[in-house]
Every structure is written in C-alpha cells, then in structure tokens.
Predict the structure of ADP-ribosylation factor-related protein 1.
Amino acid sequence: MYTLLSGLYKYMFRRDEYCILILGLDNAGKTTFLEQTKTRFSRNYKGMSFSKITTTVGLNIGTIDVGKARLMFWDLGGQEELQSLWDKYYAESHGVIYVIDSTDEERLSESKRAFEKMVTSDALEGVPILVLANKQDVETCLSIPDIKTAFSDCINKIGKRDCLTQACSALTGKGVNEGIEWMVKCVVRNIHRPPRQKDIK
Ligand SMILES: Nc1nc2c(ncn2[C@@H]2O[C@H](COP(=O)(O)OP(=O)(O)O)[C@@H](O)[C@H]2O)c(=O)[nH]1
Ligand SMILES: [Mg+2]
C-alpha cells in the first residue's frame, strides 16, 4: 500500500527537468533577465534589487517550475574570455536563451559573431533558441526588424529547430512571460522526439 501511494505521489508531483543556457555578450541583460524570471515564476522569491546586479564572472543559476516542467537556468558570463567556456555546457542543455542588447548598435556585429559560433555548434543541434531583443524599454533602441536584418545571414545556420525572436525588457518584465512560456512549450515537445545525435553516441 505504501509503495502504491508513494508511487502515485511521485507520479503526480514528478517534474521533467530541463537545462536552459542564458547566453549573450556581457552587459546584454542576462542576469537581470534571470532575476526577473525568478521573481515572476517563483512564488516566494524575493529577488535582489535589479540595480544591485553586477557583472557575472562565474555562473548564476536559477530554477523555476512551470506546470510539470522544471527549468534550470545557467547564466554564463559573456565576456570574450568566458565565451570559450560556453560549449562545455552545450551537451547538457535542452534550450538556449540568447540575449541581445538592443541599445548597443556598436556591438551588434560582435553579438552576431558569438551567436553564429554558438548556433553552428554540433552539440546544440536541434536545440530551441529564444533570441531576446532586450532593453526595448529604451526609446532609441533597435527594433526587431533592425535586429533580424543584422542577423539575417545566420538564418540558414539556425536550421529546422524552433527559434523565436522576442522583444523584451528584462528590467520592466515586458516579453519575459511570453519568452519563457514559448521555451517551455518547445522543450516539452522535444522530449518526445527521437534523441539528438550526441545522445546516441
Ligand atoms: N534599460 C534597460 N536596462 C537593462 C535591461 N536589462 C538589463 N539592463 C541593464 O544593463 C546592465 C547589464 O545588465 P546585466 O543583467 O548585468 O547583464 P549581463 O552582463 O548580460 O548579465 C545593467 O545596468 C542592467 O540594469 C533592460 O531591459 N532595460
Ligand atoms: Mg551577468
């Protein structure tokens, strides 16, 4: 009887776990996005003040539950010397959130290069990518069409995977729920697909 009940309990409260990487150049707003996400999706989470967020040197982690899915976020440092560490996490990840600073036109091509490198990595084949055009609360920011144009020659490298460009403000929270809900839908759907090449090896 105990086994039956504990089995039922485990079944009812079981959550599938998914690892989501948060990538992008330093200062794009990755850590602010993670804090905003935790504040919105974790009932009792008392986030740190957004103004207290400082440069990420190592890695920030965070977990949220959405329905039956548990998302574990890894917010990796975006400075050039830390970008070489990103691919150490690729094989474990189910989704990528790539954050772009829409106010920084000067570094847009640098961001595109980092995106291109990430998206062509074999270890990420088929993994859904949410591109966040962040800082849309700033009036003078680049629009979604501007950003899509700047990234247009990456489109054929994205392949058949799910990819969405979402306007967002990590600071005000605009677009955050939409982005997370889209990601949940994609990773949950993917778990029922045949395994990725790297899982077969
Ligand atoms: N206006 C505005 N500023 C933002 C937004 N997101 C982040 N920032 C600011 O951008 C700076 C870098 O943010 P941070 O989260 O540390 O970036 P990270 O290096 O990618 O983790 C900080 O001063 C943030 O307050 C946003 O949506 N709008
Ligand atoms: Mg950071």
In short: Residues 17 and 70 are 5 Å apart (CA to CA).
